[in-house]
Automatic annotation (TrEMBL):
PANTHER family reported for this sequence: HTH-TYPE TRANSCRIPTIONAL REGULATOR GADX (PTHR47894), HTH-TYPE TRANSCRIPTIONAL REGULATOR VQSM (PTHR47894:SF1)
Protein name: AraC family transcriptional regulator
InterPro entries found in the cross-reference section: AraC-type_N (IPR032687), Homeodomain-like_sf (IPR009057), HTH_AraC (IPR018060), Tscrpt_reg_AraC-type_HTH (IPR020449)
Lineage of the species this protein comes from: Bacteria, Pseudomonadati, Pseudomonadota, Gammaproteobacteria, Pseudomonadales
UniProt entry tagged with the keyword 4Fe-4S: no
Coiled coil: none
Domain HTH araC/xylS-type: from-to ranges: 233-330
Top-level taxon: Bacteria
UniProt keywords, alphabetically: DNA-binding, Transcription, Transcription regulation
Keyword Transcription regulation: yes
Amino acid sequence: MRERTIASHFARAALGGARRSGYDYSGLLQQLGISPELLEEPRARIAPEQFTRLLQGLWAALDDEFLGFGPTVSRPGSFAMMCHALIHCRNLDKALHRGLLFYSLFPDGPRLTISREGEMIRLSLDDSQFRDPDHFLTESQLMVWHRLGSWLIGQRILLEQATFSYARPEHGAEYDLLFSCPLEFAARQSSLVFHSRYLDRPLLQDERTLKHFLQRSPADLLARPDDGNSLSSRLRRLLSRDSSRWPDLEAVAAHLNISPQTLRRHLREEGTSFQGLKDQLRRDIAIYHLSRSDLSLQQIAEQLGFSEPSAFHRAFKKWTGLTPGAYRAQEN
């Protein structure tokens, strides 16, 4: 499956702490095959695998799992030790409380708290002391705890709401991909809200599965976006089953047993459109093949349903700011 690509913004944001500390990361980018020119293009995207390796490289170079954004340093291995501390807990409730207790032992570490609001649970993050102008550490902390919890119980924890202590950022359109739930910006605190029923779920993981999980985590938790259960996410999964035959909106609406008008309205409420979803999927499939050199530009164009390579060139430049040839040249 061709995975969702990562907006270049997140790579630039991840590099912010390294840049502030004076670390020259040009060698790391070269090693990963990420060109500085690609990162400076606002519409550009990178593959999840590249983003995973970028985060791992930065953690090792900076000796800090918080990448210089936190009020204190988190030495590499801290996340792994926290996971070992909670893996034998009876249920998710115990695991989350033990994990948060682990980080509370570090002076000036990020403060996370769990509170109950009726049938809902709010996981709150105090990000007031972060040196994080792009909000990378806030996003990362919330995503890691949500996805770690989901992994521990073997099912996705459906989020009811995500709130953020800052105004909607320029890359706010990516937040549906990151959190897949109703969002509130300029809130009193940054937090995630989910149903309390998940807290009683037993942990389905053990030391054996944890060893495999930690080989690439928490980087993989950040690099592999959570599709969620929104209509746009369901449509994307439906469309990705066969990229050589793209159903029209009427066919998709019939498949979902709703009217085309209702489908358009729901997508509009989620801030997207049917054509926009198809373009995003085409973009990600194109980047998948361009980064692997397994197909010619004409073959990629044909697979994406373009009758002429020139039409593919124009569309790809509109999506990413680069032509397919220029993108492949920078990737290889």
